[in-house]
Design a protein that fits this description.
The protein has 372 residues and is of the alpha+beta class. It has three domains: 98 residues, no CATH class; 154 residues, 2-Layer Sandwich (D-amino Acid Aminotransferase, Chain A, domain 1), CATH 3.30.470; 82 residues. 30% of the residues lie in helices and 26% in strands. Helix 6 crosses helix 7.
Length: 372
């Protein structure tokens, strides 16, 4: 049995990613895996059971299910607020304290920590954009003094492109803020005074942990923001494979290419070829694949075991390759455009790995660990 960790919610769908987890449940049957979806706060310590959900193919709906606590779990929880995030982590810690779990994926630390660690590695440091913690208005002013008239700021622990913001100042003393809200809606605000823009940005960030990076020129030939997502997954022998590489392209006038913010996915060549020609585009994609495999090995050696990773890369107008960030809960939407059967493999690989590496036929766990 494989448990899928979620945060339950009100409404017709009991949790986020309903469609993905439903397909996962159907594919799991091919591997002889029973899937139970549950929130960790439903755990009953006395009976060691959880109140979860299983997909009924006959009923075509999620059915409530009381199950023994699974010992192997796949974290697909998306807490909707800081309060829910704390509730989720507290409930999980309560379980781990007395019932060791095996997680398909370790947890990733903050982006700033990852950047600092990678920048110390000779083979990876050229890929990592300069990064610093935002520690108030003075830190941003110092950054602008050293790196030019712009900066890109993002939450140290954020995901899906939410609450990112670009700061750009002009020679006449005016400034521009453009980014995405917590609900992933784009915004643009201009200020006559740089001081006003800095003050407004500081209030907007509040007490949240943010990092600052250069505002890289990562745009298609048509001026749209884009990045390249490489999905890496373990196969049934526990070895890293690249399921696919796809371009994620945002709308003109926005600062990110994330699909949750209204972007679209295309084959990698659709973004790279118009900029660099087909031959250079193929070479860049091979560079991405090589860097992605090397990074996946490094992440596992440094931070713990992973079954899959979504690694995001950027290519600027000069053809320079940049590593942007890693995601331990990668989405699957872009893989429809990654070629061949990438979308189907993206769904099946975690289950194949779980069934042959983490579980014996009897269901006994081979490895146990706390994902940090």
């Amino acid at each position: 049995m494989l448990g899928v960790l979620v945060c339950e919610r009100d409404g017709s769908l009991p949790f986020a990613e309903d469609a993905y987890i439903r397909r996962l449940s159907l594919v799991a049957q091919r591997f002889g895996i029973s899937l139970v979806v549950f929130a960790p706060w439903t755990w009953n310590a006395r009976s060691n059971s959880v109140n979860g959900w299983s997909w009924s193919k006959r009923e075509q709906r999620w059915m409530p299910r009381v199950s023994e606590l699974p010992r192997v779990v796949y974290d697909r929880a998306w807490p909707s607020s800081e309060t829910e995030k704390r509730r989720f982590r507290s409930a999980l810690d309560r379980i781990i304290a007395v019932r060791p779990l095996t997680f398909l994926n370790s947890r990733l630390p903050h982006k700033r920590i990852i950047g600092e660690l990678l920048s110390r590695e000779k083979k990876f440091s050229p890929l990592v954009p300069p990064t610093a913690a935002y520690e108030g208005t003075n830190s941003l002013v110092g950054w602008l003094r050293e790196h030019g008239d712009s900066a890109f700021l993002k939450p140290a622990a954020g995901s899906q492109g939410r609450r990112v913001v670009a700061f750009e100042r002009a020679a006449d003393g005016s400034a521009l803020l453009s980014g995405r809200t917590s609900s992933n809606r784009p915004f643009v605000r201009s200020f006559r005074s740089e001081r006003d823009a800095l003050a407004r940005l500081h209030r907007w960030i509040g007490s949240r942990a943010y990092i600052m990076q250069p505002l890289l020129e990562l745009r298609t030939a048509f001026g749209e923001p884009f990045d390249l997502r490489a999905l890496l997954q373990k196969n049934e022998r526990g070895r890293w494979t690249i399921t696919g590489v796809a371009a994620r392209i945002g709308s003109q006038g926005t600062v990110t290419a994330n699909l949750h913010g209204g972007g679209r996915a295309e084959p990698a060549s659709a973004a790279l070829s118009p900029l660099f020609g087909s031959e250079k585009a193929r070479a860049l994609e091979q560079d991405i694949r090589g860097a992605a495999l090397a990074l996946a090995d490094w992440f596992e050696e440094t931070l713990g075991r992973f079954a899959e990773l979504g690694l995001d890369f950027g290519v600027d107008r000069s053809g320079k390759l940049w590593f942007l960030e890693a995601n331990s809960k990668p989405g699957r939407m872009a893989m429809k455009f990654a070629g061949d059967d990438a979308a189907e493999r993206a769904l099946a690989m975690p289950l194949s790995y779980a069934s042959t590496i983490l579980l014996r036929p009897s269901g006994r766990v081979i490895h146990e660990f706390d994902p940090m």
